[in-house]
Amino acid sequence: MADVPIVDLARPLDEVASTIRDACVRHGFFFVVNHGVARDVVDAMFAASSDFFSLPDDAKRTVVQDENNRGWTPHGEETLDPKHQTTGDSKEGYYIGRECEDDEIGLPLRGKNRWPDESSLGLRAFRAPMTAYYDACASLARRVMPALATALGLASSFFDDKFTRPTALLRPLRYAATASDPAAGVFAAGAHSDYGVLTILATDGTPGLQIHDARAAAAAAAGGSEEAWVPVPAVADAFVCNVGDLCERWTNGVFKSTRHRVVTTGAGVRLSAAFFWEPNFETDVSPLRECVSEENPARFEPTTYGAYILGKYAETHSGFDARTQRISYSE
Ligand SMILES: O=C(O)CCC(=O)C(=O)O
Ligand SMILES: [Fe+2]
């Protein structure tokens, strides 16, 4: 099992920050408990997710993912690790973003959410439980960021004005009851690292998430061997948090964004929900002064979050149009 520390958010800030720092300089994964998200908010989100994904594809296609990255991603549509996969991820998902303000409409990747027509599709509820869970995750992210700042030797309020109009995306996921077969390139979710600053993940307790252990990989002579992948244990009532590529970049490599993947047994479906927390578009994400030194000179060019994220999309989304800054999805 991966050595993932448990961060108790009820403890004093310095103690929380110190545990987060230890985790982030190693691999960037930690659990949070005493997180303040009510159990029934999580349960209602999973119930809504399960109901939605159980609909026939024709019904789900009414809210297929749009050019602003909102809506349903069909099963198999995404391939997170094309080099090592022979089929698409055996999962489907649904992107819910921040309901943008009117002056943001038309700007890249911002817009209004797509919501299924609950009554005509026979859904008990969708928008309300998803919104409640989204808001709870945003509140939790706003509790974790001061600890992350403290862990970096910054003022605890450092990130406050950089997340007033965050790019915050909730993505409920359903993994099919398909057995992954790493040797054959079949994965529930291919190996990847997250793009953003912080990811908050809830799962239904079904195992599957694995993280890449760089030390084990180095020890196994032929890098990339299966021994390098270690499962993340299930911890009741905890969220899995991890820092992403933007955090690694912003901290000049001090905090690590670690590759992870999902491998399923095929015994049943697996539900999870990832919440991605990224700053305002215009935020300067040049390496932090506190993370640059003679021994660790700046490794990344100065840039803004907006330029960074649009660059990531241009690299990884074949349907991304650099001129219009829109994504098109093939049906
Ligand atoms: O479902 C999981 O356990 C992980 C999901 C994930 O890594 C992601 O959506 O980025
Ligand atoms: Fe991920």
From TrEMBL:
One MF term in the entry's GO annotations: metal ion binding
Domain Fe2OG dioxygenase: 165-279
Stated name of the protein: Predicted protein
Family: Belongs to the iron/ascorbate-dependent oxidoreductase family.
Record bears the keyword S-adenosyl-L-methionine: no
Keywords, ordered alphabetically: Iron, Metal-binding, Oxidoreductase
Origin: domain of life: Eukaryota
